[in-house]
Amino acid sequence: MPADINARGAHARTALITGASAGIGAEFALQLAARGMDLVLVARRRNRLEQLATQLKEKYGVSVTVMAYDLADPGAPKSIAASLRDLDIHIDYLVNNAGYGVPGKLNTATWRTHSDFIQVLVTCVTEMTYLLLPAMQARGWGRIVNVSSIAGLLPGSGGHTLYAASKAFLVKFSESLFIENQGTGVNVVALCPGFTYSEFHDVTGTRELVSKLPKRMWAEAAVVVRTGIEALERKNPSPVVIPGWYYRWIALLTRLIPQSLLLRYMRRRAREFRNTE
Fold first, then answer.
1. Engineered SS bond to 161: which of 63, 106, 123, 271, CB 3.0-4.6 Å?
2. Model-level pTM?
């Protein structure tokens, strides 16, 4: 395990993970618990969180606190922060992971649907960071992972209109935080995976579409999370981390190919992995 995680002794540090009930969020909980970190798990589904908490406490002997919140509620970040204060829990490691997709074109969903989406993927991430970062800076140690996507590094595509835009925000937000926090002991990274085995595509109704994609385009959540954790502990970290050679290669190509060609390509191929209706 990274030496500085347990510099203050076993279970001295605590991680808060949003969207912790499944997929990448649950995998972060597993891997951080295995490194001896106490946890605060946040998601809507309390029963899922409690099952995971029981598993982690029994297997790793860490403390796990469950907080069931709907992050589409604008008051959720302040309520979470207030609960942390009441419980005297200090967060050293923040994983802004909660996210989902809204299928279809912009006007095929209600504005409330889009407003909730922006609240969860953009506003909540920013506010949670705003609320928890100062204490990390004061203690001289902190880690922030913003789970973005390779979509945030590529041109936008038809369908799921706000998804790539929200993930691009997380990339730029992370880069700025990275610069602002150099020398403070706080490391920040935007984790940008491609297609990852999880329930994400079942929720968005695109499982049948994406199941036709080549195997090389898929990654296990365990690999994605391990890449993010290791990136934060490097001596010379980077603010943007892309798991897997395939997507690193794609990200490089997007810097070399003219934008007009990329947009034409995305327009033609989007229906293979997005609900564009």
1. 106
2. 0.85
Residue 130 backbone zone (phi > 0: left; psi -120 to 50: alpha; other: beta)? alpha
* Catalytic-role residue among 60, 69, 93, 163: 163
Domains of the chain plus CATH, in order, are 3-272 (3.40.50.720)
Count of beta carbons in the 10 Å neighbourhood of residue 85: 10
Bridge partners, residue 40, by sequence: 16, 65
Amino acid identity, position 219: A
Angle formed at CA 52 by CA 48 and CA 55, multiple of 5 degrees: 145
Q: Give the residue with greater pLDDT, 41 vs 156.
A: 41
Tens of pLDDT, residues 27-54: 999 999 999 999 999 999 999 999 999 9
Cβ count within 10 A of residue 106: 13
Three-state secondary structure call for residue 238 = coil
Assess whether 100 carries a catalytic annotation.
no
The Cβ-side half-sphere exposure at 64, using a 13 Å CA radius, reads 29
What is the C-alpha radius of gyration for the chain, rounded to an integer number of angstroms? 18
Residue 75: CA count within 13 A, CB half-sphere: 3
